[in-house]
Write a structure and sequence with these properties.
Collagenase (Catalytic Domain); about 450 residues; 16 strands; IgA Peptidase M64; alpha/beta
């Protein structure tokens, strides 16, 4: 009798899982077609005011993103995009992200001048009219700007780019179809046509580095990784402090916000133009330079120079930012409190806390009973997981999970247990319900 009951429970569980998978597919097919709608925006303003401007819309071939958890955010992020079915008002897709503009508005320069930044977002192509709500938050999680636009999928001014040829590219990892895998594109910046073999070598090294780290190593077969030959007229990338401005596809440069090592690009539309005809969800830009630097912006892009001794550790660290939504666990000795994070609102990043809303969340269940708070660095071996004070650029009031981590230093050989937990949850979110097919 017990065996029969167990068998019936297993059958019921399988039926329930199958129903859930079909329901997710039906939800996608009800509202969307297998194409991508690219939305271009401008975020502009200063430290006090922000305005969001919609720009062009594009039709792209295929949809490489998720087809489940469509109305659920993986992480809160610093900004959010909600797609609603116009007829019912129901949220049928949403995503979260960070932006370079939001970083800039916290700088001293933003107190004196106004600037505008490009942004691009991909959503599944709707079958019926939709409304798209864009929402940006400030350092205290307060909403600083919103914008709502109506989009009719039959609009003749949506730029049809499905016939455009793709740039030359090759897959470094091909694990399945675009809809069944996490799709990562690697772009070349500052590599001439003659330097494309070097780019491919650097790209393979980046892939090997990322997937040598757990938990990415365990998920390697769920990724597609494509290297795109976006050639430059000149070799190298801009270093403004040295008055060096080569011609490159994405106009990347060091000295972002006047910080020597901060390497970024504001030409986000050019980046996405280079990927027309290629399935992608996440982006890496490899920069042909021996100057140390890089950057990672959650659900936007990762960028890193490739020819210095810390290249591979930096790539992995920045991938933690851009893909994983993890923040920096280091702090500055001369900066007791950073303005980047509020002390009144729990950070949404899963690898730091200010203890405002930590109990029962994040890595709290990994902390052994009796672990002192703050956890003493001298007892790091005794307490591999705890609450170590100093994180997210602040020496005081912010806590990290472990004494060291890939998100804290180039020397640490692994992600800490809390980062493992967060990355596993995120990849499960992307891959839940997928039956991978070769």
């Amino acid at each position: 009798m017990r065996r029969k009951t167990t068998s019936l429970l297993l059958v019921a569980l399988c039926l329930l899982m199958g129903w859930a998978e079909r329901a997710a597919a039906q939800h996608f097919d009800t509202f969307f077609r297998d194409s991508t709608l690219r939305l271009d925006y401008i975020f502009s303003g200063d430290s006090e005011h922000t305005t969001i401007y919609p720009e062009e819309h594009h039709l792209l071939t295929g949809w490489a993103g998720r087809r489940h958890h469509l109305d659920t955010l993986a992480l809160r992020g610093n900004a959010r995009l909600y797609v609603r079915d116009e007829a019912s008002g129901k949220v049928i897709y949403c995503t979260s992200f960070n932006s370079l503009y939001q970083e800039w508005r916290l700088t001293d320069e933003a107190k004196r001048v106004q600037r505008a930044y490009e942004n691009v977002f991909l959503i599944p192509y709707p079958k019926a009219p939709i409304t798209v709500t864009m929402e940006l938050s400030g350092a205290h999680a307060e909403v600083i700007a919103t914008q709502v636009q109506r989009i009719d999928p039959t609009d003749i001014l949506i730029h049809d780019r499905t016939k455009e040829p793709a740039l030359p590219h090759e897959y470094l990892i091909k694990s399945g179809t675009a809809k069944d895998c996490i799709d990562l594109a690697i772009l070349a910046e500052g590599y001439t046509e003659a330097e494309m073999p070097l780019f491919l070598k650097d790209a393979r090294a980046a892939v090997d580095a990322i997937f040598s780290y757990e938990p990415f190593k365990s998920y390697r077969e769920h990724f597609n990784v494509v290297a795109v030959r976006s050639t430059s007229k000149d070799s190298g990338v801009a270093v403004p402090r040295e008055h060096f401005w080569p011609r490159t596809p994405f106009s990347s440069h060091f000295d972002t916000f006047y910080s020597d090592r901060y390497l970024t690009t504001r030409r986000v539309k050019a980046i996405n133009d280079a990927l027309v005809g290629i399935p992608y969800e996440h982006l890496i830009i490899l920069v042909n330079s021996d100057v140390y630097g890089g950057g990672g912006i959650y659900n936007s892009y990762l960028i890193s120079s490739t020819h210095h001794k810390y290249y591979l550790p930096v790539i992995v660290h920045e991938f933690g930012h851009s893909f994983g939504g993890l923040t920096d666990e280091y702090f500055y000795e001369d900066d007791a409190v950073s303005e980047s994070y509020s002390r009144d609102v729990e950070p949404w990043e899963q690898n730091v806390t200010n203890l405002k809303d930590f109990e029962g969340k994040k890595w709290s269940h990994l902390i052994r009973k009796g672990t002192p708070v703050p956890t003493p660095p001298a007892q790091a071996k005794k307490y591999p997981v705890g609450l170590y004070e100093g994180a997210a650029y602040s020496k005081k009031g912010m806590y990290r999970p472990s004494f060291d981590c890939r998100m804290r230093s180039n020397a640490n050989p692994d992600f800490c247990p809390a980062c493992h937990l967060a990355l596993n949850k995120l990849m499960s979110y992307y891959l839940d319900g997928i039956k991978k097919t070769k």
